[in-house]
Amino acid sequence: MTYKSFFCLFLISLLPGLTFGQRNTNEIESKVPEYSIPDIFVNLKGQEINTIQDWVHLRRPEIVNLFEDNVYGNMPEAIDAINFTTVNENKMAMNGMATLKEVDIEVTNKTQKVTMRLILFIPNKTISPAPVFLLINHRDPENIDPTRKTKMGFWPAEEIVKRGYAAATFHVKDVSDDDKVTFSEDILSKLYPEELEKENGLRGLGAWAWGAMRAMDYFETAPEIDAEKAAVIGHSRGGKASLWTGASDPRWAITISNESGCGGAAMSRRQFGETVKIINTVFPYWFTDNFSKYNDNEALLPIDQHMLIASIAPRAVYVASASEDLWADPKGEYTSLQLGTRVHREIYNMEGNFPKEINAAGNPVHLPYAGHHIREGKHNLTPYDWNLFMDFADKHYGINSEN
Fold it and tell me: Which CATH number fits domain 3-397: 3.40.50.300, 3.60.70.12, 3.40.50.1820, 2.40.50.100?
């Protein structure tokens, strides 16, 4: 059976659960319950957080640890060896516009090895080193076809290269299958089996973030790549993983979440669209076991998703939504971005603020430290989204783009 066939059968198997979840959820704004949220600027000991030192040394590590324990699981640091092998290189890819590199990243821990494949297109005409976008891809591998015989808007590599950026991606199946049965067969069973025994152990989405961090390890060794101008991006479940990547690893200059919803950018306490209970029921392998304690109990969470965005400060963060994607709660995503970026403004004194009300579709807001847009249409990652992400990156990096 091909991976594509297996993936389709997997989605079909989820339909009963998804239908059940959608039938028992709220997509009416007036029915959002009243809720209060944890204060970003008061730590667990009751100390007020007023300075950069307070944030860096007291509150931010505490918030990241709370997300590890309650949502995404531990992020293992143990690596005995990491090796990079270029298995394919084509300096005339994309009709001479780019150099293609396919790099095997081999990670060893306690004699066990796992290999993930990084696909990378580096623009040939851009002054080296090039800034880079890394996509965490959970969709069919043909979306990231390195031969470019198949081209899809989900990863418009040619357009990324034309804008002067390197286009990089990997498939999550190399680190943790997007499957509730086989998710543990890669890094979890081979490199970090002890995590599977822990209630706060690493699970699927955390493993994807781990994979993105290994790509960053490679970028730091590649002279053609400017690792200090690297953006990580994910859509939907990949967007949840990209946010956790940015929170866990301060090497990323920009973190981008596209329609990530519950467990991503959306506020859990709003209980709008997909909820904590629904996501833990349908996708129990994405999050740590502890997260299920908050099914129908969001008020007891010691964190909410605005704090995940806050933990990325002072680095840049971008949240995008789609007008018809109520399941992902566009308003909840925007609210989270507004609240989370208070750290950028109030601790780091960065200029600019988001409008009180979410902008209409087609009216992006790009601040020096954060961006937001809502696109007309359904749940997807499109060239329209990518162009706005690159516009934001151009401004953030001070790049003059001809497009």
Answer: 3.40.50.1820
